[in-house]
Amino acid sequence: MKIKTVDLTRTYRVGPSKIIAVDKVNFEVDKVTFTAIVGPSGSGKSTLLNLIGLNDCPTSGKIFIENTDTSLLSGRERRKIRLFSIGFVFQTFNLLPTLNALENVELPMSLAGKSQKEQREKAVRLLENVGLGDRLSHMPRELSIGEMQRVAIARALANDPEVIIADEPTGELDSKTAKEIISLLFDINRKLKTTVIVATHDEKIVEVADTLCTIGDGKLKV
User: What is the mean pLDDT of residues 8-34?
Assistant: First the structure.
């Protein structure tokens, strides 16, 4: 799935002040590429990911997905893209604490209307593929940090997205586990032919990326 932004801008009001989180960003991601976006904390990385993932709306500018101007889409159409075409991986995992690993991975498929049988079979397969076949019934609190991130990646793949968007996916991990997660994301990109976009501080991710973008004060350099 090809993504393109044109003069993308996102501003926030904090009291009397205006903060420009993303400032006229022109950004293009081709299909089946691995893109890393790097920059210091507060540079606009997460805001940019939320915009291109349609979790937020720009103050001005455009986001095109497969040449479709997303500003013309209804809320329902945007939700459909998020559910079926984009998988999200967050630094803090965002697993539901009341669901076990298997149920967390099944959730997006349930929202997509898939049968319980299909949900269960695919969730088991995805968790086995990320090395968690023996952790299916474990609750998030019973998993290590690295295992939680693997569950989050399996969940992101549940509806066969064309794009994986990952926000600091190794930020909470030790170096060994981070290396394993990077390898997993790389395999998703290369073997599953899935576009991967990662915001990161991790030099190891930068090393495997096809494209490196740097952001600072909301401005992007490719």
Answer: 94
In this structure, are strands 3-14 and 17-29 parallel, antiparallel, or unpaired? antiparallel
Contact yes or no for 129/154 (Cβ under 8 A): yes
pLDDT of residue 118: 97
Q: What is the pLDDT of residues 58-92, one digit of tens each?
A: 999 999 999 999 999 999 999 999 999 999 999 88
Closest CA to 167 of 51, 85, 43, 45: 45
- 3-class secondary structure, 135: coil
Question: Is residue 222 pLDDT above 80, yes or no?
Answer: no
Residue 41 has pLDDT above 90, yes or no: no
145-156 and 101-111 helices cross at what angle (nearest 10)? 20
β-sheet with 60-65: strand ranges across: 17-29, 3-14, 60-65, 68-69
CB 89 within 8 A of CB 169: yes
The per-residue pLDDT of the chain, averaged, comes to 95
d(CA 198, CA 205): 8
- Contact between residue 10 and residue 47 where contact means Cβ atoms under 8 Å apart: yes
Q: Which residues pair with 88 in a beta bridge?
A: 165
- The one-letter amino acid code at 175 reads S
Residues 206 and 203: their CA atoms lie apart, in Å, by 5
The separation between the first and the last C-alpha atoms of the chain, rounded to the nearest angstrom, is: 19
- Whose CA is closest to 144, among 155, 133, 132? 132
